[in-house]
Amino acid sequence: MNVKENTLKLGAHMSAAGGLENAITIAVDAGCQTVQLFSANQRQWKAKRLTNDEIDVFKQTYADSGLVEMVVHASYLINLAAINAETYKKSLVALKDELTRCDQLGIDYTVLHPGAHMGEGEDTGVAKIVKSLNKVLDADWNCTLLLETTAGQGSSVGCKFEHLAAIIGGVNDASHLGVCLDTCHVFAAGYDIKSEKGYQQTIKDFDRIIGLERLKVLHINDSKTDFASHVDRHEHLGKGKIGKSGFAHIVNDKRLNKLPLILETPKGTSPGGRDFDKLNLATLRRLVI
Known about the structure:
Shape: globular
Radius of gyration: 18 Å
Distance between the termini: 12 Å
CATH topology: TIM Barrel
Oligomer: single chain
Number of domains: 1
Number of helices: 10
Helix content: 25-40%
CATH class: Alpha Beta
Strand order of the largest sheet: 1-2-3-4-6-8-9-12
Structural class: alpha/beta
């Protein structure tokens, strides 16, 4: 591995089954420098409280791991633009719980899908998410909440950079707000990151509309679906519609190479028995010039 490769913070979303610290152990085994995990069962609204022992074991495992950063992905159940009263109330409670657990565990970032307007329209959805975040971010969290770019599937908010800029601009205290850019999502949303010209324009637009200082994490996924399809389907790097060229732009962009680059590609093993995470990480490293 050359010096340039060493500067990259490459990682993947890893399973925390059997204990949150297991995600760290798996990440280290895969050769990661960073890791993303769920801090609780993402299919359930209510999570059990962490014990002091669980927190201590996690922190010690992290300290011993050599990993440089950690990211939690918030539950997919959370919808800050929900129109159902019960879902909305549960979403606010669940997000506060996520941020509390991250602070307890010493985790840097929580990634959140902004929400879905459920037919009420983008502007209404954005306004509801702003209102929700003003309720959630009224506490002094250490963890930074990252709004994730979306593909625009269904009624999801966040497929336009303007959505995220409006949310951040509307929140009373945005000091603990940032953005997670998902490569599959932005490509499916209509941002061309495959060509050199399109990639540079995308980053230029992001900086103009949101500000690159807000970009804290990238999800690195190829796309099974076509450009501007608005369909969210992740694929292994180089096997989808983005192709290796899009990821070469990212790993060689000095503006981004200090950020965590986290795979959310399909899990499992190749026909030859090699772990897919390791194969995708190796693909990224080979693209560094």
